[in-house]
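In the laboratory, one determines a bound structure by crystallizing the protein with its ligand and collecting diffraction data. In a computational setting the workflow is compressed into a single prediction: the sequence and the ligand go in, and a structural description comes out. We illustrate the idea with S-adenosylmethionine.
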Amino acid sequence: MTAGDGGGLATGERVLLVDPRGRRYLVRLTSGGAFHTHAGIVAHDDLIGRPEGAAVAASTGRRFLVFRPTLAEVVLKMPRGAQVLYPKDLGAILLAADVGPGMVVLEAGVGSGALSMALLRAGAEVVGYEVRPDFAAQARANVAALLGEDVAYRVEERDVYEGIDERGLDRVVLDLPEPWRALPHLEEALRPGGILLSYLPSITQVAELRRELDRRRFAMAETAELLRRTWHVEARSVRPDHRMVAHTGFLTTARLLAPEEGQAGEGPGGGAGLSGPGPGLSPAR
Ligand SMILES: C[S@@+](CC[C@H](N)C(=O)[O-])C[C@H]1O[C@@H](n2cnc3c(N)ncnc32)[C@H](O)[C@@H]1O
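The predicted complex, in structure-token form:
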């Protein structure tokens, strides 16, 4: 069942419990089950059949709210091996890479599957490459727990730096440390006009990627980061929260040129000259 369903909460469903202090817990409902916290025990049977947004009393009398979790809540609470992408970046990636229904997207590395979930929910068909079998298994399990088994999702346990078998990909999304090593394969695997998006935590990695993009058959390269600051809003105390996640990573996008546009570095002085400031090929810096 997903957040779109309006019916009562059912056995087997994952729900979000919110305690009186706003702390959130992801719980799978079982008949006769119980959820234990310092704020008391919540009986699953008191939740099953109730509508979303209901308040239930724990054994201590303290009230918990129950909802179906959003994708962002699942991502922050689900089991993980690798560090997941933050929801603020997941949302931005979908638009920056222009991911839509029916598009075929290669994702590497897959990690815990947070990005996979966002891509699939946007309607894409996702092929994932992941070097670590344990992470690949975790990603498959996380995706199945959210979306079921019947989704266009395949994870292969392999190294994207060693090659890509797919052809005509609409989008490639990379969340791994040396994305420039995948670029030669991407020139074969992406369709012309297709978008590469790379997420990198360090700007020195971005600089290396951008240098390599300039030397290859890519154009329209752009790098951005997103800052999300939440606010404290209570009576007359209305101000930014004191703490924020100040840095996650940089998003770099670029588009693949048609094969006849050649490759920078092919001829003397940069060959086709795509790394230069030609019209439409390189944004103003
Ligand atoms: C930070 S995690 C990705 C997290 C993922 N985006 C998510 O939202 O859950 C990076 C992943 O890349 C994988 N990885 C690193 N190098 C790789 C390569 N050359 N090919 C495939 N996967 C790779 C790592 O094993 C790791 O699981």
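The pocket of S-adenosylmethionine is lined by residues 82-85, 108-109, 111-115, 129-132, 135, 159-161, 175-176 (CB under 6 Å). Keep in mind that any predicted model is a hypothesis to be tested, not a measurement.
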